[in-house]
Amino acid sequence: MTAQLIDGVALARQWRARVAERAAALAARGHRPGLAVILVGDDAASQVYVRNKVKACGEAGIHSVLETYPASLTQDELLARIAALNADPTIHGILVQLPLPPHIDAQRVIEAIAPAKDVDGFHVANAGALLVGQRGYWPCTPYGCVKMLEHIGIELRGKHAVVIGRSNIVGKPMALLLLQANATVTICHSATADLGHFTRQADVVVAAVGRPRMLTADMVKPGAVVLDVGINRLPDGKLCGDVDFDTVREVAGWITPVPGGVGPMTIAMLLLNTVEAAERAAG
Ligand SMILES: NC(=O)C1=CN([C@@H]2O[C@H](COP(=O)(O)OP(=O)(O)OC[C@H]3O[C@@H](n4cnc5c(N)ncnc54)[C@H](OP(=O)(O)O)[C@@H]3O)[C@@H](O)[C@H]2O)C=CC1
Ligand SMILES: Nc1nc(=O)c2c([nH]1)NC[C@@H]1CN(c3ccc(C(=O)N[C@@H](CCC(=O)O)C(=O)O)cc3)C=[N+]21
Ligand SMILES: [Mg+2]
């Protein structure tokens, strides 16, 4: 048996088209959605991601402003820029690309973003809203994973979902969203003894670790849905996920590729959150 592929490029295209319709409707009422993206430093991967985000905005009819600063930018200077964007009525979403240089406290910077403009869903107010089931912005990567699961039509109620990774931006919110969808959820991390013991029980596995090909075929239950969040650059320059795609695809029921899986959906959900923020601001 070979797994069916979940095509993140095609699904993201569909979502971006829906966002474009909503953005056009807002623009027609004089409320063009706007996203500000802040990049500090010269991390090569961050530059690629940020460029992709800005390009996707343009194609969806979302006004975007890219602010790039040298790594020497001070935390106070960054906080001042965020304060200005919080007060700017043409900007509905603010994204500060992570990682930030070590002299800047990333959580402090995130908390300076107005929660209503925090389209990454990283602010404690949005994290708390997700925890208690209130309306807020969901982090784009787990949100994209939920859309992929909805797309393939899997019923999560009664299923066992295993999330590998517990970061604030991927693993933890992913687990909460799966719980909200009535899955039984296990969260694994670097201190988990015998990861395979858990993943072999999983109907759904989400790998969000950052270790190339760490999820191997012997760790996957036949027919399981495998979502690969990992983005790893190999010495030869190629990208690969946390899942050993070539072997796991022979066991799984559904699988996302890297590239072309979760990554494009992350960007589509950023646009969705931004148009949503603009709609809420327009009333
Ligand atoms: N496709 C996309 O859109 C996105 C992709 N990414 C990618 O996803 C991956 C994860 O990102 P992020 O959550 O930010 O990463 P972090 O480094 O913040 O978190 C990684 C998690 O993996 C856990 N972990 C590390 N080693 C192991 C192990 N051997 N077994 C089990 N768990 C382990 C860590 O455990 P512990 O907490 O104990 O340290 C941690 O919880 C990265 O490759 C990143 O590039 C990230 C964001 C978006
Ligand atoms: N404030 C903030 N918000 C983020 O959402 C955020 C961040 N910081 N820092 C870094 C991570 C990583 N991330 C990715 C988004 C898209 C792809 C993506 O589109 N990947 C393509 C390949 C891109 C390539 O070729 O490198 C794919 O998987 O097909 C990857 C990774 C968002 N992140
Ligand atoms: Mg991280």
UniProtKB/TrEMBL annotation:
| GO biological process per UniProt | L-histidine biosynthetic process; methionine biosynthetic process; purine nucleotide biosynthetic process; tetrahydrofolate interconversion
Q: Which domain of life is it from?
A: Bacteria
Gene Ontology molecular function, alphabetical: methenyltetrahydrofolate cyclohydrolase activity; methylenetetrahydrofolate dehydrogenase (NADP+) activity
- Known catalysed reaction(s)? (6R)-5,10-methylene-5,6,7,8-tetrahydrofolate + NADP(+) = (6R)-5,10-methenyltetrahydrofolate + NADPH; (6R)-5,10-methenyltetrahydrofolate + H2O = (6R)-10-formyltetrahydrofolate + H(+)
Q: Which residues bind NADP(+)?
A: 165-167, 231
Pathway it acts in?
One-carbon metabolism; tetrahydrofolate interconversion
Q: Which keywords describe this protein according to UniProt? A: Amino-acid biosynthesis, Histidine biosynthesis, Hydrolase, Methionine biosynthesis, Multifunctional enzyme, NADP, One-carbon metabolism, Oxidoreductase, Purine biosynthesis
Q: Name one Pfam family in it.
A: THF_DHG_CYH_C
The record's Gene Ontology cellular component field reads:
cytosol
Listed EC numbers: 1.5.1.5, 3.5.4.9
Q: Which residues form the Tetrahydrofolate dehydrogenase/cyclohydrolase NAD(P)-binding domain?
A: 139-281
Which parts of the sequence belong to the Tetrahydrofolate dehydrogenase/cyclohydrolase catalytic domain?
6-120
Regarding protein family, the annotation reads: Belongs to the tetrahydrofolate dehydrogenase/cyclohydrolase family.
Its biological purpose: Catalyzes the oxidation of 5,10-methylenetetrahydrofolate to 5,10-methenyltetrahydrofolate and then the hydrolysis of 5,10-methenyltetrahydrofolate to 10-formyltetrahydrofolate.
Q: How does it assemble?
A: Homodimer.
Q: What is this protein called?
A: Bifunctional protein FolD
The record lists the organism as: Tepidimonas aquatica
This chain is encoded by the gene named folD
